[in-house]
């Protein structure tokens, strides 16, 4: 399993969407393991997680605390609840010494 941009590996998702999917790895290549697709019944569960992961990558690439806020907000479990915002604030506080300076302002958006 890898977590990387889809790049056509899994049917039904944009190329830039970050997904976790099975791949074969050897000395020269990384390639999707066969024809991959998400069953319709699970697409609604996977899509929000993929959006969350994609936004995390975008936030890191842009060093943008507001995109990080949107990534945290997009996490589909207990989405947009007081409890989830409190958890994100707590985690950002606990790990503030490890969080790059570019993301220190993320707490302001929560």
Question: Strand order across the biggest sheet?
Answer: 1-3
What does the overall shape look like?
globular
Instruction: Name the poorly predicted regions.
Output: none
The span between the termini is: 32 Å
- The tally of structural domains comes to 2
According to DSSP, the number of beta strands is: 6
The share of residues in extended strands comes to: 15-25%
- The helix content is 40-55%
Number of helices: 4
Report on the structure:
A hairpin with a 4-residue loop joins β4 (23-25) and β5. This protein is of the alpha+beta class. A two-stranded antiparallel sheet has the order 1-3. A two-stranded parallel ribbon has the order 2-6. The chain folds into two domains: 1-37, no CATH class; 40-110, no CATH class. Helices cover 45% and strands 16% of the residues. α1 runs antiparallel to α2 (65-74). It has four helices and six strands.
Task: Give structural attributes.
110 residues; 2 domains; two-stranded antiparallel sheet; two-stranded parallel sheet; 4 helices
In short:
This protein is α+β, with helices and mostly antiparallel strands and 110 residues long. It has helices at 40-62, 65-74, 82-94, 106-109; strands at residues 2-5, 10-11, 18-21, 23-25, 30-32, 36-37. The chain has two domains: 1-37, no CATH class; 40-110, no CATH class.
């Amino acid at each position: 399993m890898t977590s990387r941009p889809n790049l056509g590996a899994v049917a039904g998702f944009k190329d830039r969407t970050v997904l976790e999917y099975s791949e074969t790895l050897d000395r020269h290549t990384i390639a999707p393991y066969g024809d991959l697709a998400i069953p319709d019944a699970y697409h609604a569960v996977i899509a929000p997680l993929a959006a969350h992961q994609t936004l995390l990558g975008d936030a890191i690439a842009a060093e943008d605390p507001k995109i990080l806020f949107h990534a945290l907000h997009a996490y589909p479990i207990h989405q947009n609840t007081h409890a989830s915002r409190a958890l994100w604030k707590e985690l950002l506080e606990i790990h503030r010494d490890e969080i790059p300076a570019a993301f220190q302002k993320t707490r302001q958006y929560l």
